[in-house]
Amino acid sequence: MAGRWRTHLGMVSAAAVLAGGLAACGDSSTASGTPTLNWYINPDNGGQQTIAQQCSEQSGGAYTIDVSILPSDAAAQREQLMRRLAGNDTSIDLMSLDPVFVPETAEAGFLAEVPADLQQQWSDGIVEGAVQGASWKDELVTAPFWANTQLLWFRKSVAQAAGLDTTQPITWDQLVQAAQQQGTAIGVQGQRAESMTVWVNAMIASAGGEVIENPDAKGPDIRLGLESEAGAAAAKVMQDITAAGVGGPGIDNRDEAATANLFQQGDAAFMVNWPFVYAQGKSAAEEGTMDQAIFDDYGWTTYPAMSADLPAAPPLGGIDIGVSAFSENKEAAFEAVSCIVSVENQAAYMISDGNPAAAEAAYEDPEVQEAYPMYDTIRTSLQAAAPRPQTAYYNEVSQGIADRWQPVSAVTDDTPAQSQGYIEEVLRGEKLL
């Protein structure tokens, strides 16, 4: 998941002046002549550090990878990287990027061009959603490392009592009706944050629409697809949840962790969320903070569809690895990326850190299948997943959606048009976020 960005591509040139002192800070080689590659990573459970050490050893002296950990806040991650890159900082060789960062980083010329043979290598056998998220203007510009997607989670006993056939795609209409019938809630992320954009984008994409219809365009020329039949369908889901009273407590302040707790505690028998909720529930059962019978009642299927005749386009998350355009060791950096994103490393990282692999073959690993019984559902979902709006102006679009589609209870038939008009004014420079 990406957080809210605080700066914008148009400010990068100005940031270059401020970041000038950051350029060329750091020695790119060891005393022995072996190049040292600096890999800036998002915080995790240590899995990327382990992979860096292993790839360094396996390189036979071709390179050594040092890891630098970015801030935990996604906006701060982006700001730190952009300020350094704007100053032509040669100390950055590799970057772990959220897919929503990829277009802006590529459009600014901050990513080294991926050789043709590696474009093929890094996309073969990779789930379709992850390939899309790692690309810009129909070209792979980063290497898919891990991918993420939301599933529909449910209490098996409640779904059975409601008469839901969970072996078939379930629509939002069916979900709302089942929750209302059973007197329970649907766990959704309704806070004014990135998670709201994730939800709105997934519903619009699942209804056959696009939040941005011409992603390559410059700000004022961007055509938004919020005011559309797909946007109206997304607004209707939120209105239906409110009218049926199945949003559950605290919906307007609820993020992914709060939604998982709501489901775990039994206040919601249905939930859309990322796969981390399974490991969290398993740990709670093992530690005795949740009854084992509750965890045994966990069920899962693919993301809710908007209608019976259209397949869902689930949310896409994850991390891609980019090589800096200013790296002084590009050849070694590309070699290192190929090691980092190997099927074996993706499978190991999925097991150690709980982040789903982008490579299809990783899901055939017996240890992955044991750790994630829903592995095939995750893989299926990732094949159908739709990236969030791919644009160099993602901050404006994402924050504009979060500002206008929240609180959930205030969403009306006019919300899609209002949000589109607001974002268009921001893109034209007529309003500030």
Mind sketching the topology for me?
Layout: H1 12-19, E1 36-41, H2 47-58, E2 64-69, H3 74-86, E3 94-97, H4 102-107, H5 116-123, H6 128-133, E4 135-136, E5 139-140, E6 143-149, E7 151-155, H7 156-161, H8 172-182, E8 186-187, H9 194-206, H10 229-244, H11 256-264, E9 270-273, H12 276-287, H13 292-296, E10 298-301, E11 316-323, H14 330-340, H15 343-353, H16 366-371, H17 375-384, H18 394-404, H19 415-427
Parallel strand pairs: 1-2, 1-3, 8-9
Antiparallel strand pairs: 3-11, 4-5, 6-11, 7-9, 7-10
Helix pairs in contact: 1-3, 8-10, 9-10, 9-18, 18-19
Could you please describe the fold and organization of this structure?
By secondary structure, this protein is α/β, with parallel strands linked by helices. It folds into two domains: 9-148 and 317-382, D-Maltodextrin-Binding Protein, domain 2, CATH 3.40.190; 151-313 and 393-427, 3-Layer(aba) Sandwich (D-Maltodextrin-Binding Protein, domain 2), CATH 3.40.190. 43% of the residues lie in helices and 12% in strands. The protein is built from 19 helices and eleven strands. The chain has helices at residues 12-19, 47-58, 74-86, 102-107, 116-123, 128-133, 156-161, 172-182, 194-206, 229-244, 256-264, 276-287, 292-296, 330-340, 343-353, 366-371, 375-384, 394-404, 415-427; strands at 36-41, 64-69, 94-97, 135-136, 139-140, 143-149, 151-155, 186-187, 270-273, 298-301, 316-323. The strands form three sheets. It has a five-stranded mixed β-sheet. A four-stranded mixed β-sheet has the order 8-9-7-10. A two-stranded antiparallel ribbon has the order 4-5. Strand 1, helix 2 and strand 2 (64-69) form a beta-alpha-beta unit. It is globular and about 70 Å long. The two termini are 21 Å apart. Residues 1-27 have low confidence and may be disordered.
